[in-house]
UniProtKB/TrEMBL annotation:
Keywords: DNA-binding, Transcription, Transcription regulation. Signal peptide: none annotated. PANTHER family: HTH-TYPE TRANSCRIPTIONAL REGULATOR BETI, HTH-TYPE TRANSCRIPTIONAL REGULATOR RUTR. Residues 5-65 form the HTH tetR-type domain. Residues 28-47 bind DNA. This is AcrR family transcriptional regulator. One of its GO terms (molecular function) is DNA-binding transcription factor activity. It comes from Nocardioides daedukensis. The lineage of its organism: Bacteria, Bacillati, Actinomycetota, Actinomycetes, Propionibacteriales. It comes from the Bacteria. It holds the Pfam family TetR_N.
């Protein structure tokens, strides 16, 4: 049996889950402690403020992005197809921290805005390097973003319709790469 996550990780994941579900204003230290099943003092031991929680989430986001960019650059199928194929995946560490950064950016936290701009630009550059055309690269990114958006929506329509069409969308990616 695996060991339960350490208190720091539990608090950080609880923070991200609360950001996703309730937004930045409702994500208080007390709420994080309750969600993580820790005492408030236990959370404050690792994160003396909400800002410290946000900074830790930002660091984890950057690490997850660097791993994703490396995987994307090394993917045998190429960065464009890899981007679209993995856009459908939710529940990963990258997804957890990406949503946290989106919610923090929506509340005007500038480091989150800058981190999101950085990773979107890095994804675009990898795809553009492969396909050779900025507009084709942007279209490929929009395909991936649409898949990501729909994968997070409730209901069968999103999962069923797009799950069946990912391979067709990858054929469209191949077409855009040749254009």
């Amino acid at each position: 049996m695996s060991r339960p996550p350490k208190a720091r990780n539990k608090a950080l994941l609880a923070y991200c889950e609360l950001l996703r579900r309730d937004g930045e204003r409702a994500t208080t230290i007390d709420a994080v402690a309750a969600r993580a099943e820790l005492s408030k003092g236990g959370v404050l031991y690792h994160f003396p403020s909400k800002e410290a929680l946000a900074e830790a989430a930002l660091e984890e986001f950057r690490l997850s992005c660097e791993q994703d960019l490396a995987s994307m650059a090394e993917a045998a199928e190429g960065p464009a197809r890899h981007y679209v194929r993995t856009s459908w995946t939710s529940g990963s560490d990258l997804d957890t921290y990406y949503i946290a950064m989106l919610r923090l950016a929506q509340s005007s936290w500038q480091p989150a805005v800058e981190a999101l701009e950085w990773v979107h630009q890095a994804w675009l550059e990898l795809i553009q390097e492969e396909v050779g055309d900025r507009y084709a690269a942007e279209a490929i990114m929009l395909i991936g973003e649409g898949l990501y958006h729909h994968s997070s929506m409730p209901g069968e329509w999103s999962r069923g319709t797009f799950a069946r069409s990912v391979e067709h969308l990858l054929e469209l990616v191949d077409h855009l790469k040749r254009s």
